[in-house]
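New to this. Please check both lines:
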Amino acid sequence: MAGREFGHYLGLPGALSGLPLSPLVVGYGELAAAQSGAGLRHLGEALAPAGDLRVLDGLYVPSGPRSRRRVDADLLDDLARTTSSAAARVAELLAELYRRDPQGPRRAVLYQLICLLQESCPVEALGVHPDERAALVAAARTRPVLDRLQRDAAEALADAWERRRLHRVRGLMARLPQGDPRLERLRTVLAARSANAEAALAAARCAEEDGALESASERYLRALDLAADDKRALRGLVRVHRPGRKAKLRAEVALDHIALDWERDGTDWRLLCLYRTPRGEARVREVTGVRDTAVPLGTAVRYAAFPLADDRVAGPPLVSHRVLFAPEVTGLTLTDGPERIAGTWRRPPGAEEVTVEPVAGKRPELRADGFTVTGLPVGHHELRVVCHYRTPDGRLVPSPGVRASHRVHPWPEPVRTLTAVPEDHTVRFDWTGGADAEVRLVVWPGRPPAPGTELRASELPPAVTVPPAGHSRVAAVSVLGERALAGPSVDVEVLQPVTGLGARRLPDGAVAVLLDWPAATNQLVVRWDGPDGTGERTVTAHAYRHGGLRLPVGPGRVRLCATAVPQGPRGAVVAAAGAETVVPPDTAIGYQLVRERRLLRGRGRTLLRVTLSSLGGGGGPDVPEFVCVARSGTVRPRSATDGTTVVRVPGAELIRYGTVEQELPAAPLPAPYTLRGFLLGEHAADVRLEEPSPATLVVR
């Protein structure tokens, strides 16, 4: 009955046993990935989405109600062009496969159908023509069931063979059961090619032992051409072509990888890493890219770059020197101090520990980011910083190390004590220590460094011999060449003298103090001494600038003295000479208009009475001249020149008579006009002018 035996149309009674154990399709992985992306259970669904796919006597799809069409390159190309879904990529890959191997698409479809049936998938759900379902199910029962490892081997076999990886092909075929004629033929060809590769290897070893390195290289390349994954041939080529002093393939250790560099010349290359396991077994692995990030820390490796042509080794390799993947510290910085070298670094990730070789027999004190070694004599000292890494087998492997040298310079002896003693409006400094060094006195702009701090001479502030005005902290620094050590400091306050001290008499025995406030001074103390008593007043710069200074000294002659007040309670204070001035007794000149009565029908006179009085007793100041100025209108004159002078009384006349009356000129200005008195002369500021009410000085 039709469809009962697989291949019965061909008259093959034993066809049921000839089902493919492997698709033997180059690029099967890409084909399966495209199939999965399209959501297809098997490749046949891309050919016949509606079902009725025939596979027994060839690969056919429905064509009309009762006809069928063989799957060939033209049909696959049409499907790739007309199918808009993801299945178009599957059809495109099948078309490429058909052109390489016309039976390839059918083998791949049969392989997948049998696997699905063996996984208990109903045959009705696979889209196979009803006439062929029974034979297909019977075939699935007879073919051996492959487990996951066997299926992986079956699907990878064609790619491994295409790339001439004979050892991988041998391992894959060892997983598969026998019974597939195509696989048996492949085993025969594999055995013959392997024998040729072994012969080439044997000839290469003999040539290498005889020292004929060029001949050995040719035979190793022949063996590698036959078996591209033969690691013995790879290692033989690496031995024959080991680099000289300067390798053309450069391997540089970085923090997290090994960087490879060589002249590529536009050629494709195959990169290999050669290493040994903890048990000493030789291993080879391929490297993708020019950065190898798969090297375990503490492992020694060597690299080889093989030129390729058509994806096959085309010549001898470039070989690197053996490198140990043990990154060194970075940013190593060394500084010296008195009998000391200190270093800092950036520790590489993964380093178990970092050590420093003993320097001049002294063991360094280690920190996480550096070290310090003390007790060193003056001179150059060599050192080596080594990183240690834990290997996968637990060993601690040191890095080659970073070598450096540094000189311990002679440093000055530190200043131990510093004192400051005021002396004749200056200060004398004394210190101990600093032998054989230059001792500089400096004023730091901020907080001075702690004694013993290591400095550079170029970093020091300018040296001072006399501290600046105001409060400052003077520090001693010992200097030897370019190196310096900070020493102790003392507080010094240099007081500034007061200048421009004077006073102006006010009513009721008070005076207004006038002075030039000294810079860098916060407070002044003003003292007075006179017949009316003594006193003292402390005033701040802010209070003086905003409100002045008034003192109740009394009307008598008084002596004023103003000195600066120290800001701090500690430290040496360099006093400044106090400013003094003598304020004469309180002396005043008053004036007023006096109008005489009219006699009969005559006009009365208008007099200006000027009176000198001294509340502080005798010994007053020289009396200035008094003038009276008239100005038209009712606005008072602003100065002695702002109007017409109508009365002038010399000071000597006031001293002689005490009171002087003078008649105003008749109509000096058109009425009304306003009068005002002023004091003129050298001693005008020493005498108070007592003015009457402005309303009484308007003449109408």
About this structure: Residues 181-209 form the longest helix (29 residues). Residues 238 and 342 are 44 Å apart (CA to CA). Residues 1-17 have pLDDT under 50 and may be disordered.
